[in-house]
Specification:
It is a single chain. The protein is α+β, with helices and mostly antiparallel strands. About 45% of the residues lie in helices and about 15% in strands. The chain has a three-stranded antiparallel β-sheet. A two-stranded antiparallel sheet has the order 4-7. A hairpin with a 2-residue loop joins strand 1 and strand 2. Helix 1 crosses helix 2, helix 1 crosses helix 3 and helix 1 crosses helix 4.
Length: about 200
């Protein structure tokens, strides 16, 4: 558990999801947003490759792929924002990301000191804007981390760049934890997944 400051009091966040009910809230939203997360993650990995001096889409050695993965996880917020601008999202895709953030707040919010009841997935977007922002900032990146998602780099098989539609070679590096490890198999139809970590602007 971790305690954060929020407007009017404090909130306690879960370190991980134990309840199936909370996990399902997050999983349903993640499934809707998975395609756009893939687009954004590829944009982030491409930015990391350029930052390291690698040609985007080039065949990488295992050591180079590891460097790209590390560079992707440590992109600054400004670098992520710049990379995101290259990805054109539809209204539906944008809403899917916003709803994933809603789900992350509902799933990870254990308790708060406010008199109002905790929000649920149907009314979380109705809470005070400043309160929502504080909770969103605190849960940023936790959705993809909890889903045990993966990030693809390197050169082991041909994949399709979800941003341009062009083929490019990739390998894969995965991150998973706890409950999500058994869920990852159901996500195998996705061409790309995102890595966990609060350094990302992703939900």
């Amino acid at each position: 558990m971790s305690v954060i400051e929020i407007p009017g009091g404090t909130a306690t966040l879960r370190d991980k999801l134990v309840s199936e009910r909370h996990f399902r809230v997050l999983e349903a939203a993640y499934m809707s947003a998975e395609g756009v997360i893939s687009k954004l993650q590829y944009a982030f990995s491409a930015a990391a490759m350029e930052k390291l001096g690698f040609e985007v889409g080039a065949t990488l050695t295992a050591a180079q792929a590891q460097k790209v993965e590390e560079a992707t996880r440590t992109l600054t917020e400004e670098e992520q924002t710049a990379a995101s601008k290259a990805v054109h999202l539809s209204r539906a895709e944008s809403m899917a990301l916003l709803e994933l953030q809603d789900a992350a707040i509902v799933a990870f919010l254990e308790h708060w000191s406010l008199k109002a009841p905790l929000p649920n997935i149907d009314n979380v977007a109705d809470i005070n804007k400043e309160l929502y922002k504080a909770l969103a900032d605190a849960t940023k990146g936790l959705a993809t981390q909890a889903m045990g998602s993966t990030v693809n780099f390197g050169a082991t098989e041909d994949k399709v760049d979800p941003v341009t539609g062009l083929d490019f070679p990739t390998g894969a590096s995965s991150v998973s934890d706890g409950h999500s490890e058994t869920k990852a198999q159901s996500q195998s139809t996705s061409k790309h997944k995102t890595s966990g970590g609060n350094t990302s602007t992703q939900p």
